[in-house]
Amino acid sequence: MAKKIIITNEIRKLRFFANEMTQQQLAEKVGASRQTIISIEAGKYSPSLELAFRIAEAFNVKISEVFDYEVKGDK
User: Looking at residue 75, what is its pLDDT?
Assistant: First the structure.
């Protein structure tokens, strides 16, 4: 079995604590579409490294506070 990387994120929680920032507001801050933010937040799409850093910057946190990953499969 091949290894699979599962990427998770805390975007919803960070938006809540950022005065309940909307997905649209975040999208505008980072230069992405609302649909892209929805897909990333739902775990259906992994952002580019650049976009991941822009999202972290929007919340003024380190990228590791937004995204995490887990490796599944053969160790």
Answer: 57
Say how far apart CA 75 and CA 71 lie, in whole Å. Answer: 8
Q: Are 30 and 20 in contact (CB under 8 A)?
A: no
DSSP 61: S
Task: Give the list of residues 6+ apart from residue 36 with CB closer than 8 angstroms, or none.
Answer: 27, 45, 47, 51
- The 3-state DSSP class for residue 22 equals coil
CB atoms within 10 A of CB 27: 19
SS3 75: coil
Q: Can you tell me which residue has the tokens 């805390």?
A: 10
How far is Cα 66 from Cα 73, in angstroms, rounded to an integer? Answer: 24
pTM of the model: 0.90
The separation between CA 44 and the C-alpha centre of its own chain, rounded to angstroms, equals 10
